Each structure stands twice: as structure tokens, then as C-alpha cells.
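Colleagues,

Please find the record for the two-part complex below.
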Amino acid sequence: MPASDYTYWLGKEKEDLKWIGKRGLHRLDADDKATGKAIFGRDVKLPGMLYARIMMSPYARAKIKSMDTSEAEKLPGVRAVLRYDDPIIPKRIFNPWDPDIGFTAGQATPYAKPMYILGPEAFFEGAPLGVAIAADDLDIVDEAMELVKVEWEVLPFNIDYEKALDPGTPIVYDYMTEWDPNWLFGFRYAISSSYADEEFTLEPGWSGAENASNMVNKSTGYLPGTDLEAGFAEADKTIEFTFKRTESKAVSPEILSTIAQWTDNGMLEIFQHSQDGIKKMFDVYALMMDMPKNRFLHHNGYAGGSFGGQTLYLNCFHCQLPIAAFLAKKTGAPVKVLYKRQDNQFGEMDEGKHHAKVGFKNDGTITAVQTEGLFAQCGDLRLITDTFGVGHLLSCTKIPNLEGTGTTVNVNKHAFGAHRCEQQIPAHYKQEVYSHVAAECGVDEGTIAKVNDGKGGHGLEYLSEYRHNNNIPDVNGLDLVLEAAKDAVNFDEKFHTPGERKLPNGKYHGMCLAPHHEFSNGANPPAPDPRSLKKMMLSCNYGQVHITGLKGDVGVDMRTGICRAIADELGMNFEDVIYSHLDESTESRPETWLSGGGASLTFSGHVWTSVALARLLKIKILAFAAIALEANAEDLDIVDSNVVFKDDPSNATPFGSISSLHQITATIPDVVMDWGKLDIPSAPSPAGLVAGLYMCRSCNILEVEVDPETGGVEIVNAVAVNDVGLAVGPETCEGQAYGGAIMGYSTGSIEEQIYDPGTGVRLNPNFIDYKILTLADIPNIEGIIVESRMGTGPYGSCGIGEDNTTFCSSMVTAAIHNAIGKWVDTYPPTPERVLKALGKA
Amino acid sequence: MTEKEKKNNSGGVSRREFLKDAGLLVGGTAIGSSVLLAACGDGETVTEMVTKTITEQGGTSTKTVTVTGEPGATATVTSPPITVTAQTEAGEIAEAIIKLDINGNETSVMVRPNWTLQNVLNDKLGLTGAKEWCDTGACGSCTVIMDGRPVLSCMMLAIECTGKKIETVEGIAHANHPLIETYKNNNCMQCGYCTPGFVVTAKALLDKNPNPSREEIIDALSGNLCRCSTYPQHVPAVQEAAQKLGGS
């Protein structure tokens, strides 16, 4: 077990922190967002800007046999028509396994679809292809698009993942022999084994068509030492169950758009709705446009809801940037490519069918779990294959025998798109296992969680010993959150076994309790590795400290959190810490990356960087102040933006009045050079633990009322309790708690993308027919924050947000079971499905 | 197959495309679309669907508003002229100049008959608070106040709005309405894309009902979607603003 001193990162006691945890501070983005001043990518308008759209496939699978754009080209106001066969477009098909792109297999595997620019093939309805048109305004673009004549070769398709491997089912990629052998190589690598380490070679005469299959991947993973036979033999009882999840969508508010313009010195300037303009995205774009990687200037504005989906994969997959760039090149003007709402109704991560076998003792102690899942290709394959459906059981239980198998198949639907993606399906598996065992044992899920609490097959004593050895506070995190959640809804008085509580209104009352772990995707401590540091500089400026840092925003208020931390580290007043965006860069993600969409307030390499830079800057400030004040640096401190003498704090000199301080900076090279001098110890390492650290726990409780006559389900009460370690911004944490929970209840109770099985066309790519919960639909809900300081981010903090969404989406059917005593086997539990479970439909 | 044929096969219909087919002729021909009375009336209190006609009369545009389901409830509204600057060969308006009172500032703007008010505000006039999310009148992110009533600007043809008094979130903020402060105090935003729409709807509610109950606030804001699900904090924000304005 690794041992390291966590004290350095834990920092001051909470009562000594002035700005971290302070309530009543406005978010730094609050005014922009409340007043409409916040500029999102879609709001950007440049002088002389043209507008453009891309043709979208009307068919689930089709090929363009011929296309006549002559009438569109003649329309007044049309400035450029970019066809799929335009010489400016590289003929290469880009695959995510291309070594020049450098994705890991895990990153690339979910995108088992080719990335191409306006290629003539459509794999799904709504696929961008064929032609893009730029004109003076959107009216002209739309009119011109209607003048395009296309002769389609409509091809057989399949959108049913359960039939994907049946003999005779159309193979999604059977035509790939016509394409670039390099791409074939990558694709073959992909379909053979996305996780294989072995080298593949393109054998002479190898035919993609002969080898094509809808199988993408089949993998099995297990906890080391797993013996399923022994585990099930040890059990008092063994149960098996199956559940399905249909497709839900992220439905980000801001519709995808990209503006591109070429500068005089050959740089490509970009404004794009993107969660994070990370380097790998531009690596892909550079490859697509055959240009150096250092030719991009990326402006990352506010992002209107991303939730993981509006990130590098989808942006690259849709190729908006290269299309906008080529149109800008042709016209010599900035070009804005705009999608419509239905064009943006893409991305899913959870469609699939799942089976579990669970062995347990009469007290709820689980002895073995075996899962097997079949996922549409859009399924969250990376996360699933990383954790094989039992990921959450690995990360927060002591269950000794765990094995999961996942099979992923291709269908003619849009590629994967993350949506609050922290192991969505493994979250479903864990909750289903807990709720089924609890129902069988006649207890609540909290009881099951307590008797199985642990990590990677180890019990609580393992976690306790680890925390002790690493100077991490040692608290029973599960007890903390269970108590808070149960008290909030008076759970113990309300709890009943399935089907036992009929209400005076004729409905049945049901409850579900979901204990789970923190959201810490990325919390694994990166410091003091210089590779973990992000672009940032601190500089003193006339009584203020300016942070020059990269920009990115998905609503988690990271900027305010960083300013709070730096103010506390330096002894500055919050209003004297100013965050200035380093806007132009090909790496613009640090505020959000590893915090995930909507999760963390404090962790990520950016915050580690902030803390390290602030501590270094303070050393420099006090050294310079000592010269100016003719004192010893060790006798000085900074309090409320004044340099004070420690033995006489009333002897205070305003920070801004010491002229020699104005040009002091702290930069990343400084930190790296001075790392040794700063005596920064190694932070705790996850090595030796399975599936990350996850010290903190969270707990959600949901109450529903089910109408046995109509099958209607009403969510009436909920509480979301999250141990965030330390809440840097308490109100924002609470917002993530109830906000994540409501989003989860929405996807888990009503959201479903519907297709016409006869055509493969989406029937509800709009907000008239695709419903999400509104203010009138939501339950009474409370967000409660618990602070154990066991998180592995700075100050003992950890993430929040994703866990609420992923677990809450899996709670609804369990609550319904508690109400009516019957399992609804498919999410979302529509009235029809509830009635079917009741034997009434 | 043309793009038009393609769209007929799709479940998604752009509001812009729908409006484009609405048609508008110069000289007294009825507009072919139905609109919300709440968006076009002049002091009426009903919000049912209506049909309306525009008659050009010597430089003054007279609108006759007929209330569906309430026979006889007819209002005549006199509006400033629409100055037609370009026509098609068929006599349709191609471009026209309309006058809008936006946040107290009289503004003349050239529009085409199929342009929505949201498009004109956001893209043509740079008032970015009116956001496009659904483009089908289902999300509330583009809400503005027109003649005292909240309307969905993506559902309004700009050319129909001539002479209208329009309040956007920018105007509400410029007037230092307490909602801005209470929305900030209550942490009502995450990604923030939908926030202006909530503020505008809440302002319209408080204008009409300075002391709304919790249920009335929920009812008023239930047409505004928030994917980040900031919903719970909007109720206290509106209640606090009501208190600041002198309500209970």
C-alpha cells in the first residue's frame, strides 16, 4: 500500500479558510448569465460573416449516386458550395485509431464509426454528408439546399441491436473495401479487439467485406481472485434478472455551431460550441485539413450545456470545423456553420439489454455478481469495457467475486455521445443489484450498502488503514450520507416492503435509496508531476493578483472556485483576485477537463496548478516585501490584501502600495524549477486500489406514487446528499446535487428517442415530442452537502454532479417496484410498461 | 431527391422552414399562420389562439384581431406602417422596414417576412439574451415581453411586431430590476443558456402579479426548460424579487 503525506494538499482547517466555503459570493459568471451578456458560440457574429449548413441524410443508410448542385450555385447570395467530391477535401477516411491522432484505444473505441468530411456514405439518419453551402444569410442557404438534387442509393439498414448479430442482418460497414486501406487497417484493428495490445498488419488480399461484422467488441473483466462458482455456492440465495435501457439524449441547449476564419498569417481562427477545445481535437483537425497543429486559434466561450457530449469526439465526428474552414477558404470570409435542433439531437450512451446473476446471504452480504450486457454501438463502450458492468461494485463494495461481460454491436444510429457519463450502465447495474437484493431480504438498499461497503473486494478496514497511512481523515463516509439522507425524508418511518403501502388517493407509495460513491473521475492526484500542470500564470498588479488561465465553461463555476482558493492561499480579498482568460489556444479545457461535465468544483490539474502557483507566488511576494519593508520574510504574512507583521498584524501595508510587488509573477516553469524547494510531497496514489480512490460516499432517496389503473408514475419527493470532501462553493455544490438528480430522474422516467422501425428515421428529434422534466414536474427536492475532507483533490475535496445523474436515472424502476411489487424491465418506465408489469397490458 | 423532399421524411421541422411557407402578401391578404393573441394583441387579456388579418390603409397598418372561441371579442390595433422595400414578382413582400420599441429605444430594422423576432433580436440586433434552443416554441429560452406579455420570440414573425413595445433581458438588466440580483443571489444558473428566458418570464409575471404564490410562480415558469435543472432556485429568486418590489 503506497504511503504519502496528504497534509500538504489538505491545507488549512476549514475555520481558517475565509473564501473557500463562504456562502453568499456571487458566481463570477452570474451577472453575464442572468443579464444575457454571456456570449455563447452560437451568439458570435463577425464582420462579413457568411452562414452555412450541411446536408443531413434522410435515410438510415444510403449512398449518394449523383448530386446536382448547379441550381444552388446559381442562386443569388450563395457564396460557396462545398461538395463531397471537391478537390479541397482530403479523400482520406479518418479513423480514431490513426496513430497521428494518438487516441488511446479506450478513447477511440466508442467511435467505431469513421470520421469523414462530407463523404458520400450515410450510416444513420441525420448524418452530415454530401454538400455544405455558404451564403449571405440562412434564408439563402436553406433555399439553395432545397435546390440540390440528389440521386440516392438507399441501402438496407438495421437499428435493432438485438438483431445485429443475427444471420442476414445488414452489416453496417460492409462496403469499406472501397475505402482507403489505411482506414481499413484501423477499422480492422477496432473490430478485432479494441483493447488488444498485439500489432496488426494489413495482409495482402485481406477483404474488409469478407471479414465485416456488426460485432465491435466483446470483453470480459473480473475482480482478481474471482471464483464465481465458489461465490454462488456460498450464497443462501441466487437471483437473476434482466433490464433494458432505451436511448436517451443529452439535448444540450446550445445547438452545435462553428465559426472559422483565416487570418492574414495563415492561422485558422475558431469560435466553436465546445465543452473543451483540447489539443487532441486540433490534432484531429490538423490531420483532416493537412495543416500543422500549431495553426489553430481557438476561442472558447460559454458553452450552453454540454454534459460530456459536446466534446472532442462529437465535434470531430461532425467535422463542422473543417467544413467551415474550407468554406472560409473558398470565400475569403468568416463562415458560421449552424445546425438545427433536429441536427443536434444526437448522441446516446445507454441503449442496451442487461442480465445479472447475484448470489447473497440472508443478511444481504453479496457473495458473487455476474453480469452480461449487449450494447448498441452507441453504448458507453469505453466505460463499460473498462468496468465490465460491475465497475461501481468494484469501486465501493467488498464483494469478492465480480465478473462482467460486455458485447457491443454496430447499428445504423448516430455514434456515441457522452451524457453525464460516469459509468452510466454500471451505475444501473449497481442499483439494480442493490434494489433486487434489498427487496429479497426485506430491507432497504442502505442496509445492503452497509454490509457490503468497501473497495475492490476489501472491507472498510482496508480503506481505514489506507487513510491512516496517508494522513487522510478517517471517517465512515457511508454512515455520514445515509444518516443525512434518511433524516431529510424521515425514511425509516416511511420505509415498507414492496407493494405494502396504498395511499388514500388509490395510488401506491414507493421508495428507492441509492448509496453510491463520489464523482472523482480525474481526481486521482496528478501532482507533483509537471505533466499534470496546466497553462496558467499568476501576476501581481497594483494590489490585485491576476490569474491568466485557460477558458472553458460548462456551468460548474470553476473560475470562482479557483479564485476562492488563490485568495485563501495568498491572504488576499476575493475581489482582489481577478481571472483573465487566456483565450487563444489550442488547449482551452482546463476549467472543465477531468472535472467532467457538471461535476467538480475543485479538482483537475488546473486547480492543483492554482494551489502550487499561489504558494510559490506568496513566497516571492513576501521576499520582495521584506526588502521594501526592511524586514525578514519569515516575519511577514498577507492578510486581507495587506502585508502584515506576524507579531503585530496592525502593522499592515496595503499590498498595492509596495511598488516592487507589481511585476512579480509565478509561472509553471517556476513551479517545476522550484518544486523541490517547495517540498511538495507525493499525493496519495490510487495504486493498489481498484477503480480509483473514491473515499467519499453519496446517497439519493426517491419517493414515487404509482397509479395502478393508468400506470402513471409521479415523482413526489427526493433528497440528494453528497459528501464533497470540502465544498469550495457551497451553493454551486447544492445546485449540482439537485440539478444532477433532476436530470437523472428525467432521463430515468420519461426520456426516450423513438425511431420508425420501417425507415430508421427519428420520430421525435425536437422538444415537442421529446420531453424533459419542467419546473412543474419536479419533485420536492433538497440538495444536502456533507464535508468529510476525504476527497483526494486539494483541500480534501472531490467532485459532484455526475453521480447524482447516473444513479438517479436508475432509481425510478426500483421505486416503482417498491410501490407495486413488480419490476418494470425497461427504462423509461412509461405507463404502458408499468401496466405491462402489472399484467394489465 | 431534393432537400425539401428529404425534410418531408424527417420528424424534425424547423420553425424557420415552417414560417417560410407561411406567406405574406402586400395589400390586405391574410397571413396564413395562426399566432398567439398574447403576442399580438393590444391590451387584451385572453391568450387563446387567434387568426388575424392585416390591411394596408394609406400608410397605416390596421390589424383586426379575432378571438377564437369568444365571438365578438374583437380588437382593432393601429400600428406604424410596414415600409416595404422589396417585393417579389408575385407581389409578396421580400423585405420591409419595421419599427420596434426595444427596451424603450425606437428601432427601425429591415426584415424579411419569414424572419422570426428571435432571429432579428439575436442575430440582427445583437441582443443575445433571446436564445435559440428548441426553435419550436417549446423551451422558453427566447422569451421576451411584448406589450406587457411574455411571448416566445421564435414563434413570432418579426414583421408582425411593428409598433410593438418589446422588453428583453438586456432592458430588464439595464433598468436594475431586482430579479437580476435575486437570480444571482440564488445561484439560479449553471451553464446559463436558459437563464435569460427565465428572468424575462419572471419579470412578466411580477408585472402582472406583484405578489405571486409559489404555485403561480411554478405555473408561470413551467414553460421554461433548464437542462442543468436549476429549477428549485427560481422560485425563491422570484419571491425575493417580489419582496424587493414591495410585495409580501
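Chain A has 26 helices and 27 strands.

Comments are welcome before we finalize the supplementary table.
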